[in-house]
Write a structure and sequence with these properties.
The complex is a heterodimer of chains A (about 475) and B (about 120).
Chain A (H helix, E strand, L loop, with lengths): L1 E7 L3 H13 L6 E5 L6 H7 L12 E4 L32 H5 L9 H15 L24 H9 L4 E3 L32 H4 L9 E5 L1 E9 L2 E9 L2 E12 L2 H11 L15 E9 L11 E5 L14 E6 L15 E8 L8 E4 L5 E5 L4 H17 L5 E6 L37 E3 L14 H20 L1
Parallel strand pairs in A: 1-2, 1-8, 2-5, 3-14, 8-16
Antiparallel strand pairs in A: 4-10, 6-7, 7-8, 9-12, 9-15, 10-11, 11-12, 13-14
Chain B lengths: L5 H11 L7 H15 L3 H8 L18 H18 L36
Helix pairs in contact in B: 1-2, 1-4
Classes of the chains: A alpha/beta (about 475), B mainly alpha (about 120).
């Protein structure tokens, strides 16, 4: 049997691509979705306190920086299982880093291209957030913002327009489909199902009669003939089989997207390279006389004071998160809540030396040597300016960790997007430059990362790609 | 780092919360439960629970350039926080002189929506 669309993966990029595809495809379309993981029930997940029976760390090897970790989920719904629901948009300047600041690369698309798609994703995810944000928006979020804490409000007053409630997929009010966030603070597996996941928010696309879903099956490679991809090789239950398709879309994440193409013999010199993600550090701050933790979700405030501006010509932008998680309370009488925990997330610039290859055991090898000097200069600037930054707060003690956290769970790069086929793997529509019926979705396409969590952008890009392909096909 | 025993956990709680009327049986029950759940490498487990498991594992802990004293300080705060959130302390009226009562171990999956301060209206 031949399919009109073969889709690898069931995470954010695949699911939003499929949503748009099914809205425009004919009723006779045949779609095959191939998911390496299984569809774990919430009961199983909560019982085992894991989102997947497949330990992700067994599916790849690492080399390079020993403290670097990578996090993703192999299960129906992909990263929607383990993400924390932080859903800000990127800023317009994030798409024009080279033109504006002379560093990194420009994207082949701009914020205005994606804005309507961001708004569409907001609706699907029922995003909670403020109407006024540092990124322009033409319509308000579907849900009101979460409650801020008292320190949040002090920072918001001191930095008007630069410190706002976080846009999030952790529900603020009932959606009818999932729970309401109660700030339990273990969002990687939410005990009350309050964050958007593919399972609770988009599962209906996989129930469409045009869609066949294969679980526990892995796309290993694509077949190429006469300059087109003709199908995929699938491994399932110890057997290999070949499936034919007209349009192939890879939404298996930066690791496995690149792995599939490398196994297929794609010779592009940048395939697998530019593996990167954000760099983050934390600060513990004791306050004098101000109680914290009144927020209604785990990450309440989001600060843009160190994000965009002329400094990006020399050092990385930084996004600040305030964590409403009372797990380091003070023991002094009456002062338990007089502290806060901030996270500082820096953009990193992709480096060719950080890359993914296929090892001798056929597993991807993630070779990450170091974050960029650009990112570390951002950390240096933060350390030098931390006292001034926190001056609106009554700070007694501030301890900034200089050791980056092992991972942000936001893998990017490996199949970069661009206009020049010599320096990019996919075009502005996420279509492979060389194989015009092959789409490579997700964070693998990001030319730069920005400090903003990438999920909303990944989802918007999937809609963008599908809309173009279906409109192009119709025309 | 030596793994805290229940006796060590109790001693830490009494040292840091000496100003509170603590119920000895409750403190002992919490300490035993904490040790049972986390066992060896308690500190790295606490780190693993922060930010959804994205911080250091026991293999990475020695590589962190944080002063040992800072790590111990953080560990103690987290343990004391776990204790207080496992009691009725934050649900008592100011000036309540009764002993702080152990209710149940503050496990987010056994007791979700247990954030003592979140405003959710």
């Amino acid at each position: 049997m031949s399919y009109d669309l073969i889709l690898a993966g069931t995470g954010f990029s695949s699911s939003f691509f499929l949503l748009e595809y099914l809205a425009r495809a004919p009723r006779t379309a045949r779609v095959l979705v191939i998911e390496r993981g299984w569809r774990e029930s919430r009961g199983w997940q909560l019982q085992h306190r894991r989102v997947s029976r497949i330990p992700h760390e067994t599916t790849f090897r690492s080399s390079g920086l020993p403290t670097k970790e990578w996090r993703f989920t192999l299960a129906f719904g992909g990263g929607s299982n383990c993400w924390w629901g932080c859903a800000p948009r990127m800023l317009p300047a994030d798409f024009r880093l080279r033109t504006t600041y002379g560093v990194g690369d420009d994207w082949p698309i701009g914020y205005d291209d994606l804005e309507p798609l961001y708004a569409a994703v907001d609706q699907v995810m029922a995003i909670s957030g403020p109407e006024q944000t540092p990124y322009p928006r033409r319509s308000p979020p579907p849900q009101p913002p979460h409650h801020l804490s008292d320190p949040d409000r002090m920072l918001a007053r001191a930095y008007p327009g630069q410190y706002v409630a976080q846009a999030t997929a952790r529900a603020r009010v009932p959606t009818g489909r999932r729970g309401v966030c109660c700030a339990t603070g273990v969002c990687g597996l939410c005990p009350v199902d309050a964050k958007f996941t593919i399972e609770n928010g988009l599962a209906e696309v996989y129930a469409d009669p045009r869609v066949s879903l294969q679980l526990g099956a892995e796309v290993r490679a694509v077949d190429v003939a006469a300059g087109r991809v003709t199908g995929v090789h699938v491994s399932r239950e110890g057997r290999e089989e070949r499936v034919e398709g007209d349009l192939i879309a890879l939404g298996a994440g930066p690791v496995f997207n690149a792995g599939i193409l490398l196994r297929s013999g794609d010779p592009h010199p940048l395939l697998g390279r530019r593996l990167f993600e954000q760099m983050a550090v934390t600060a513990d701050i004791d306050l004098a006389g101000v109680d914290n933790f009144q927020g209604s979700t785990v990450v309440t405030g989001q600060g843009y004071m160190l994000y965009d501006g002329p400094h990006r010509s020399t050092h990385a932008a930084c996004l600040i998160e305030n964590w409403n998680r009372p797990d380091q309370l003070r023991w002094e009488p009456g002062r338990a809540r007089q502290l806060m925990q901030l996270k500082f997330i820096f953009e990193d610039l992709p480096q060719v030396k950080n890359r993914l290859t296929i090892g001798t055991d056929d597993r991807p090898v993630l070779e990450f040597h170091e974050y960029s000097d650009y990112a570390y200069r951002g950390l240096d600037a933060l350390a030098a300016g931390l006292d001034a930054l926190l001056s609106p707060l009554p700070v007694e003690r501030a301890v900034l960790s200089r050791q980056p956290l092992p991972t942000e769970g936001h893998m990017l790069g490996t199949a970069v997007m661009g206009t020049d086929p010599e320096t990019s793997v996919v075009d502005r529509w996420m279509v492979h430059h060389r194989f015009r019926n092959l789409v490579v979705l997700g964070g693998s396409a990001f030319p730069t990362g920005s400090p903003s969590n990438p999920t909303l952008t990944i989802s918007a890009l999937a809609l963008w790609s599908a809309r173009h392909l279906l409109d192009k096909g119709a025309s | 780092m030596r793994a805290p025993s229940p006796a060590d956990i109790e001693a830490l709680i009494y040292r840091r919360l000496a100003y509170l009327p603590l119920d000895p049986a409750g403190v002992a029950e919490f300490a035993a439960e904490y040790a049972r759940r986390y066992g060896v490498f308690s500190m790295s487990v606490h780190f693993r629970e922060t930010f959804g498991g994205l911080l250091a594992t026991e293999a990475v802990l020695p590589l962190l350039p944080v002063e040992r004293s800072q790590r111990l300080f953080t560990f103690e705060r987290r343990l004391v926080s776990s204790f207080l959130r496992s009691t009725d302390y934050f649900r008592r009226d100011a000036g309540d002189g009764r002993s702080v009562r152990y209710v149940a171990f503050a496990d987010p999956y056994e007791l979700p929506c247990n954030h003592p301060f979140a405003v959710r209206s």
